[in-house]
Amino acid sequence: MTLSRRSLLAGAAILAASSRARAAADADVAVIGAGAAGLAAAAAIRHGGHSVVVLEARGRIGGRAFTETALGPGRSFDAGGQYVHWAERNPWREIVRAAGVRTSDDATGSWPVLVRDGVRASEAERRQRRSGFGRVSALLDHPAGPDRSVAQAVAGEDEAARAAATGLTRLTLGEEPDRVSAADYDQLWSGDDIWVDGYGALVARHYADLPVRLDTPVTGIDWRGPGVAVETPRGTLRAACAIVTVPIGVLASEALRFIPALPAPNAEAVAGLTMGAYTKIGLALDLARWRPQDLRDAVILQSGTPGLTAYLEMQPFGKPLAVLHCGGDGARALCEAGERAALAAATDHLVSVFGAEIRAAVTAGRLAPWWTDPFSRGSYSLARPGHLAAREALHLPVAERIFLAGEAAAGGAAMTVGGATLDGERAARDVLKRLGS
């Protein structure tokens, strides 16, 4: 490649602008968001020898990796991520091992009970449901032709297969099947899953020494000058570069303004993605008040909540807890109804499986309302049908000084703590190159 005088002058101008920005900056790099991506990015920037400040809207770090402890000692549960997915290549596998936290391979329990409208399903119904899942799995395995929604992919199948597709997308992606890209689902990585007791707490401990300014929501990023000016209610921070790791739901809401607006390719990438509504409700149990023989997990279908598919996780890691998992529009309705109504609904679902006597054993509860949380606006990202390329397009830098990162940009690793971590490190490498490291 031959460098012209014009290209040399342009390169010199960029370097000069970079030098001016760094001289006037409060930090070399501002990281927006202290979830797994932001924390991983900040750790990598600091390791590369540059100053970094992390700005976090919440009063804690970890983002959507969060261990809820409000139900008291011995009753914590992961309100967000709880699995080290595709553990063979997930960086958290070794971190978990080194920390010595309790884990499970989640493969030793009994088959869950299937309950439809309060009635336990027969063995024939269970076989029919398993058959439906098998056919859906085959249809979604490397689907041919143009990308389409999961609902479209199973449109020609019988009711059992269509119901299985609905259950699949609600309980794995947190969304309705007509809004999920079949190609996006197919490209997600697979492998061994490790269930972690306190994944969110581990993330917070692992990055506890990073310089994070809590309770500092970023309202704007002005990139008209040579660097960036990051606006917060506590003042403006100046940096040479910014790594923006807030969830897609926050970017789409425009609660964080870019001045000028994001260029069209970046804005189109954000618009090509959406957020699911995977939701958990933890119920504390006093098993001295009620202790039946059968405390198996259960899959609940529309038991008191229209459009609901839920998974009831009983006594995770032996704790006196029931954790209701749900997704899609039924989960959105529970989040929007508020914690009190959601806890009442979750208790009713518990009763639908185990009988009215268990109601007396429920002593407290906690809703993880990711859908209505202003700092997440959903559980994790999904590509809209026909927009698979949006994840990769998020990697496009803005003026070589704003870099978007997070689970949404992690490709096959999307929707996971591990994916967010890997993509935060990817963004940090891009920034370090920009800074000349």
From TrEMBL:
Signal peptide: 1-23
Start and end residues of each Amine oxidase domain: 123-432
Chemical reaction(s) catalysed: L-tryptophan + O2 = indole-3-acetamide + CO2 + H2O
EC number: 1.13.12.3
Pfam families xrefs: Amino_oxidase, NAD_binding_8
Pathway(s) annotated for this protein in UniProt: Plant hormone metabolism; auxin biosynthesis
Name of the featured protein: Tryptophan 2-monooxygenase
